[in-house]
Specification:
The protein is an alpha/beta fold and about 475 residues long. The protein is about 20% helix and about 35% strand. It has 3 domains: about 280 residues, Alpha-Beta Complex (Spore Coat Polysaccharide Biosynthesis Protein SpsA, Chain A), CATH 3.90.550; about 70 residues, no CATH class; about 100 residues, Jelly Rolls, CATH 2.60.120.10. A 6-stranded antiparallel sheet has the order 21-22-23-30-25-28, with no helix packed on it. The protein has a 5-stranded mixed barrel with strand order 7-10-8-9-13. The longest helix has 16 residues. The chain starts with a strand and ends in a 7-residue tail after the last strand.
Amino acid sequence: MSRSISVLPVIMAGGSGTRLWPLSRAGYPKQFLVLTGETSLFQQAAERVAQLASDDITIESPVVVGNAEHRFMVLEQLRELGMDSTAVVLEPSGRNTAPALTLAALQAQEGGADPVLVVTPADQTVADTAAFNHALQNAVRGAADGSIVILGITPDKPETGYGYIRVAPGAMSGELAAVAQFVEKPNLPTAERYLAEGGYYWNSGMFVLKASVWLKALQTFRPDILEATKASWEAKRADAKFVRPGKKEFEQVPAESVDYAVMERCPGSAFDIRMVPLAAGWNDLGAWDAVWQVSSKDGAGNASVGDVMMEDTRNTLVHASGRLVSTVGVDNLVVIETADAVLVADASRSQDVKKIVNKLATKGRGEGLLHRKVHRPWGWYDSIDAGPRFQVKRIMVRPGASLSLQMHHHRAEHWIVVTGTAEVTCGERKILLSENQSTYIPLGEVHRLANPGKVDLEIIEVQSGSYLGEDDIVRYEDTYGRTA
């Protein structure tokens, strides 16, 4: 009778995707965007690892490691797929991937288990799912025997943006090759030599290994990271599916990547590290030129999303979020339109978009952090107009959802129902409003907006007052754990 291998997928969902600004922002980063196909990159990652089951492999619900600000996006996007999670581990601060994987391994061992971890970033795309499944199943079987297995992408060009994995000649044993060396991102002549020589693969950032093997390797190579992360884990608190490691303790964890902390130290050590080649149309969508590469194109090499008209245009990507975008007589451009920002860039300079995001941060501007439409666990709001002492928002509340019971020190609010039914708490009163009805929330009054109906509730909110910032909220009760 064949053995049964228990696999726990680990989806690394942190990161801000600054090179895909203005569509990707810190408050809604690229992994939660639909850039290819019909689902987000995070959803694609969740679906891929869920399909790995076979006669000898069982798949558990994933552990997701990510930012606390994105926790409700994770649950909502999994819900859209009809999927659940074992846990959503919320990093108190960004400490790179080695501490993130350590948190996942400690979660995996809760209750004495020791599954094989399939660790994947949440922001990659794969064209050939069958080839991906075949490679990853072989990696799982190798990891079940105690090896550390990494997926290496078969290169099709001399890429300078990735680190490489070198395998020794004749190192292939079945589907797995012994890793001889990890090498840094090369310059172009070196990358061309790697492609000509063969035996070099792109480092995909996907790892497969037992939870106990990762913790043992980290203890060997970086015990400081392990001990500091354990201290944070011991101070954790759980809130439904959310696991929150101790913030003060986690901030003491050294920031380091999985590669630098462990993987690059394994060749020649006591740890058996192997690679499975992957040729499946993989792309990490690191910048807009990569999005163009994987997009469907017309005969002139143009890719477009939204309301776009092109004339005498070649090799160009245009993404229109809300308005008509037109191009005439251009070549090799990236044009990205959103409600509050437009990017126009030479496609060959896509990597430099992050410099704009850095400038926005330096100037204290919010366009690098949030879209005009801001997603919340109960729905979203869109800031459609603002001026001195007033702001107008369009607000959507999902069926059965509600905002917190709250109060503002500096503003009053008028609410007009556009669609659906609103349940309004205002002081001691509770009233129901339907379409075209309105109410007034005085400054300093405790209030709440809820949707008791079966369809989305949309209202127009007009704020007036001396200060209209989002931090002027005192929460008394909240379904989503956002009270002090």
